Amino acid sequence: NAGVIQTPRHKVTGKGQEATLWCEPISGHSAVFWYRQTIVQGLEFLTYFRNQAPIDDSGMPKERFSAQMPNQSHSTLKIQSTQPQDSAVYLCASSFQGIEVFFGKGTRLTVV
Amino acid sequence: GQGVEQPAKLMSVEGTFARVNCTYSTSGFNGLSWYQQREGQAPVFLSYVVLDGLKDSGHFSTFLSRSNGYSYLLLTELQIKDSASYLCAVRPSSSGSWQLIFGSGTQLTVMP
Fold this sequence. Notes:
The complex is a heterodimer. By secondary structure, chain A is mainly β. Chain A has no helices and 11 strands. The mean pLDDT of chain A is 95. Chain B is mostly beta strands. Helices cover 0% and strands 54% of the residues of chain B. Chain A binds chain B through residues 4, 31, 33, 35, 42-45, 48, 50, 55-56, 58-59, 91, 95, 98-106, and chain B through 31, 33, 41-45, 48, 87, 89, 91, 95, 97-105.
């Protein structure tokens, strides 16, 4: 079991460019979550899917952020027109029943 | 608003114990989890509690008082390698969402 796999591990984008982050959840897990982590704000919930369906996107900045889960084996988080304040570690996580949540190692996004 | 609060730092001595406190105020309550996060790594699940009282898991024990909105993580027989950030997370779900609200984490330093 390789755990939750996130790619890339590091990404640098210019202000205004688009960034797409990828996540492969643990096989058999029904839920996939996206969080982001910064020193100032800590770990913030963005959105999650259960059985590929979007369930709760209450943490997503609506204008430039979007997430999809086209199949059971991967999810993407897309940020359009990236801004310096989007710089953070984006963590994908998966869970079987929502109690024990397994996190990936994250993608460190830097917007310059 | 909803919030989870933790002290930022805690220091203790190898071989003794440390208690990491967490207070929360959320619209609903559907369980509280503790995670360990080492520098540059993903959070790792430690414990989940939903009922009042003490749950003993050996090296880690967890206490919950729902009426007081309070929990603690107790680490006994501390080792240097227990130095890490410990994150408290509440599932507030009044809607069935599996979203977690995280505290900012308590950085535990275990000294020789």
